[in-house]
Structures are given as structure tokens and as C-alpha cells.
Amino acid sequence: MLDLKEESADRRAGSAPQGEALPLAVQGLSHAFGERQALRNVSFELGRGDRTMLLGLNGAGKTTLFSLITRLYNHRSGSIRIFGWEIKNKPSEALARLGVVFQLPTLDLDLSVAQNLFYHAALHGLPRREAAVRIRHEIERVGLTDRMREHARTLSGGQRRRVEIARALIHRPKLLLLDEPTVGLDVASRQFMLDHVRMLCREEGLAALWATHLIDEVDSEARVIVLHRGRILAEGPVPEVIRRANATSMREAFDNLTGERAE
Amino acid sequence: MKPVHYYRCLRGIVWREALRFLNQRGRFLAALVRPLVWLLIFATGFRFVLGVSIIPPYQTYIPYEEYIAPGLLGMILMFQGMQSSLSMVWDRETGSMRTLLVSPLPRWYLLVSKLVAAVIVSVLQAYVFLLIAWFWGIQPPRIGYLTVLPALILAGMMLSALGLFLSSVIRQLENFAGVMNFVIFPMFFASSALYPLWTVRQANETLYQICMVNPFTHAVELVRFALYEKFNLEAFAVVAGCAILFMVLAVLGYDPGRGLIVRRAGAE
């Protein structure tokens, strides 16, 4: 939809990001709901191909952060840039480059798998023929080609998640957000999701931000951001974060980091 | 984003709304049975209780069924409009609102598309009802079937926009029973849908005034006049004005920079 020509036209039009823009750059982000401070001065970056696990307990601020990055509502302080485009000022450019798998299931259960995917393609302004090609490709990669015509309702929880990740990729985003995508999945489905995202980052250079409260999901090849009570306590490649926390495992590192500041 | 992207997006949203409607046979049937129950049973029962004198746009005495037909068209538009708008929010099962709002097209455009889709579905339903009513002896002039179209569209816009606005502000209205009690029933009964307003005025002046400020009254009158090839300027002005007002409020309600959607999120 946004081919290179259009992109360069956009960039010429002003307020264009300079040079090689990062897939995601969050700076000085704070957000409060009334008295409750959900995020405090959060800053981090995702580079091309980075697979970053956003680790935090429930209520750490993960969902608020995702809501702000997907522009459900605007942030009031700090900045969120997606490939250099500030989401608040240039939502269209930013959202076009972003794929999302939400925490809650968002497939329309009364529609077939194919209909769900075509609907998403339409929301991104893709022509039908182009959409058909991409949908076939994405659904094949998650191994559900033979379920295309079935109602989403007939799929298992794990299969629905696979459709959702296929859907998030139809418009070929270079940044993928996943908000606790494995909650409620069985072991095999969970592993599939982890492997699939790992493959996307390694082979296609996708940047992925994966929110989770499950420490087991944080493997040593990933980067990790530890979010606790709205603050980032640690950030970096997993082995480095473990070392800096004087720990031998991620679990221990998490306990050390959060325990320090627990009251 | 070019115009063609906008067009594809609108087409996709309308197509989905139509599919959803057709796939949910129960919903289709319920939407049709509701006004038919009123027409075939209620109106027949009340035929001799409520006398309808000659009032515009009618040129002769008319049976009660014929009087309430436009009111029932209004009912179809209202139920359908509220349902598709509110379903975006209360369908936690599908979370379709979130998927809609991450589209790169402007948010106001997504909401207007959603509205257009809802109106198309409800206008189709209104015509199915008119067809059945024709066999029941409610036979307005042929041209009326054509002139009623713009009235149905405008009234449908207003009612769907109202639903959209409500969905953006009021959490408690997320189940349909609440909407029925606090929005649909009061609007429906305090209007000219079931009885001419002069009868209401004779009984209670205050209620009459309430009926007169109820936008649904004007939606029904707009449809009633149009069905008989007449144009009611007052009704048109009120309905058009309210449609725009509700739409603006809905867009503000979903604006990521303003209070409403943010406050909702904070409450969760």
C-alpha cells in the first residue's frame, strides 16, 4: 500500500524522519490516569531485527504502554516514534508500519478465517488481489491453509492466535507488537508463537516487542525490558541484564531487580 | 493515503457489516420479527381503540396499522443503529473496536465508514419490512417507496450516530438491556411513532413537549411524510442537525487526545 515512491513523497513533504530511523523509539514517556501513575519516564529503543521481551507483572504498565503505542489514546508527555514518525502527529504513517496482536482475542468469530483477513487488508487499503496473495502466504506460514473457509469460531485458541499473527503481518509491517500473546495457550501453541516471531525477526528483520509476565518466555537470545510499577528497571540483551543484576538466571535477575525496590 | 485507500477501507467495513448480519440469522430474524409483531398483532388489536383523524401527510382517514408503519420503520432504524454501533464496544468477544482503530486511516473516517455500513444494513431491513407490510395492506403510493429512501438514510444516520456517541461515553450501556430501558424505550414511546401527538397533547402538555424535543419524533415524521411523497422541512432540519451533532460528539468521544476514551481506559 505504501510503496517506496509514496514513502519518499511523504518524506519530502516535511517533518520527515532523518536517516535510518529506528523501528521504535520511546522517549521520556509518562502517563497517568488521574492520581495513578501508570508509566514514569519510560525510554527505550528497538532496532531492526530486535526481538525484545517486555517483562512485567500484571499492572506493571504493559497494557498502557501498548495502548499508547497503538494510539488508542494519546500520550501527553514524551514521544513515541515508529520509524521516525511521531505517533501523535503522524498517526497514519506510524500505524501503517505497525502490526499488532492484542491481548484479548480480536477475531470476528462469526466470519470465516479468510473473511477476517480480508477485512484487515481492507482496513489498510490493500487491493483485493494483492491481499489474496499476501493472505495465502501468511496463512500458509502458520499452517492453517486448509482452515481458510471455516468460521473462526470453530478454531481452537491456539489456532485463533496463529490467525491473528498472520493477520498482523498482511500489510507487511516492520514492527510487530504482541501483548501477552500466549495467555491461555497450550504448550505447543505457545512454542509455535515464540518460534514464529523468532523466525520473523531473524529472517525478515522485523522488530518485535513482546509483552509477557512469564519469565520462561524470555530466552537468552532476546533483549529484555523489565518494567515494574511503570518504570523501566533494566534493559538490554538478556545475558547482560542477568549479569548486571548479579544473577545467574532471568528469574533471579527479575527478583533482584524488583525486590530491591519493593516496599 | 490516497482516495483509493479510503474507498477500499469503506468497502471492507460495509462488506464486513453485511456479512456479520447475514451470518447471524437469529439477528436478522429478530430484527424483522420485532416490528412485525407490532404491526400484525399490536396494531390490529388497537385498530378500534385508537382513532386517527385526518392529519398531514394523510389525506383521508387511515387505519391504525397504516399510521404506525413509519413509526415501526423508525424502530428498525433505531434498533439496528444502536446495535451495530454499540456492538463495537460490548462485543468483548471480538474486540473489533481495537482492530478498527489501528487502521492507518483517520479515526473520524473509520467511524463514518462504520456508520455508513450500519445505515446500509438498516435501510435494507426497512425495505424488507415495507415489502411484508405491503401484503398486509399497507400500500403507500409507489413513488413513496423511492422518496422514502433519503429519509430512511438520514434518520438511520442520526440514530446510528447516537449509538456511536453513546458507545464512546457510557460504559454502563454496554449491555443491550440497559440501552433498551434507558434509550430505546423512552425515545420510542415519547414520540409520534405509536400515536399522533395531538392525542398526547390532550392528555398531558408536558409529555407533548417532551415528544416534540425528542429527535426520534422528527425522524419518524420525516419518514412518514417522505413515504407519502411529502417533504417535512422541520423534521428534516432537526434530523440533519442532530445527525451532525451526534456524529461530531462521537468523533470527539473516540478522539485519542481528548478525555472520554482516556478516562474509560483509566477506569479499567
General description of the model:
- The complex is a heterodimer of chains A (263) and B (268).
- Helix content of chain A is 37%, strand content 24%.
- Chain A has 263 residues and is of the alpha/beta class.
- In chain A, the strands form 2 sheets. A 6-stranded mixed sheet of chain A has the order 6-7-8-3-9-10, sandwiched between helices. Chain A has a 4-stranded antiparallel sheet with strand order 2-1-4-5.
- In chain A, helix 4 (113-123) runs parallel beside helix 6 (157-169) and helix 8 (238-244) packs across helix 9 (250-261).
- The longest helix of chain A has 18 residues, at 187-204.
- Chain A is globular.
- Chain A starts with a helix and ends with a helix.
- The two termini of chain B are 33 Å apart.
- Chain B is mainly α.
- Chain B is globular and about 55 Å long.
- The mean pLDDT of chain B is 86.
- Classes of the chains: A alpha/beta (263), B mainly alpha (268).
- Chain A binds chain B through residues 1, 33-34, 36, 64, 67, 70-74, 88, 91-96, 98, 100, 102, 104-111, 115, 118-128, and chain B through 1-2, 4-6, 8-9, 11-13, 15-16, 19-20, 23-24, 92-96, 98-106, 110, 256-257, 261-263, 265-267.
Short description:
By secondary structure, chain A is of the alpha/beta class.
Overall pLDDT level of chain A: 89
Taking the sheet with the most strands of chain B, its summary is: none
Indicate the radius of gyration of chain B in whole angstroms.
19 Å
Q: What gap, in angstroms, lies between the N and C termini of chain A? A: 50 Å
